[in-house]
Design a protein that fits this description.
The chain has 232 residues and is mainly α. Helices cover 74% and strands 6% of the residues. The chain has a two-stranded antiparallel sheet.
């Protein structure tokens, strides 16, 4: 819990850095016309599907468990049986930590599949000819991730309980902002090298402001206590 609270200023710094990076990208992906609208349109299409049509819960659960498995493999673990159902799922892993546990809530599995498919197709074909559809698929799958993540976090989630709500929610928020920033960099004009110094500057500023607020609040408590003791 304490680690989660300590990370709050970092979450604020990352948010401001991501917003500034987004502004520097021209407020979009650097394209005009349909390519520039494809991502937000894809996002809106899925939001409408999510609220108006039956939800593909099994599809989400499959991506959820595969994300656990993927991050476990990336961190040196091994994967056993995977169970997927409408009421939930389970995957057997030989290794776990808070990143593996919380990965499904910040890693957009199906968006990653779309991006991987794009680069695989670029080996043999020219996927840029269908840029609008690729960008629309990115917007739709990322919206899939966001809507289901919010929906699932509104319910009891053992993954979140395992490491505590404050810590888990803070990590989930920070990682989602970083993933969104990564998408902005991949689809727009900013560069990876631009984000590092910007993030460091905003994070330091956020901790400085929080430190000043804590110091001011602490001094007020001391002054109040001294005044109370003198009156006594």
């Amino acid at each position: 819990m304490l680690i989660g609270v300590v990370l709050w200023p970092l979450a604020c710094g990352i948010s401001f850095a991501a917003y500034q990076l987004y502004r520097s990208s021209g407020g979009g992906i650097g394209e005009s016309g349909w390519p520039g609208l494809a991502v937000p349109l894809g996002f809106i299409v899925w939001v409408l599907i999510f609220f108006l049509l039956p939800r593909p819960v099994r599809t989400y659960v499959l991506g959820h468990e595969l994300t656990h498995a993927l991050w476990a493999v990336l961190m040196g673990g091994r994967v056993g049986r995977i169970k997927v159902g409408k009421e939930g799922g389970h995957v057997e892993l030989t290794k776990t930590n808070f990143i593996i546990t919380l990965a499904p809530y910040f890693f957009p599995f199906y968006t990653a599949l779309v991006i991987a498919a794009y680069y695989l197709c670029s080996i043999w074909l020219n996927p840029a000819a269908y840029q609008v559809w690729w960008l629309g698929a990115i917007g739709l799958t990322w919206s899939f991730h966001i809507t289901f993540t919010i929906h699932m976090l509104s319910q009891h989630q053992p993954d979140v309980q395992e490491h505590g709500r404050i810590f888990s929610y803070t990590i989930i928020y920070i990682m989602n902002v970083l993933v969104l920033t990564l998408l902005v960099i991949m689809l727009g004009q900013p560069r990876f090298i631009d984000f590092g110094p910007l993030l460091a500057d905003k994070a330091v500023e956020a901790y400085r402001v929080c430190g000043a607020l804590i110091a001011t609040g602490g001094q007020r408590v001391i002054d109040f206590a001294n005044g109370f003791l003198q009156e006594s």
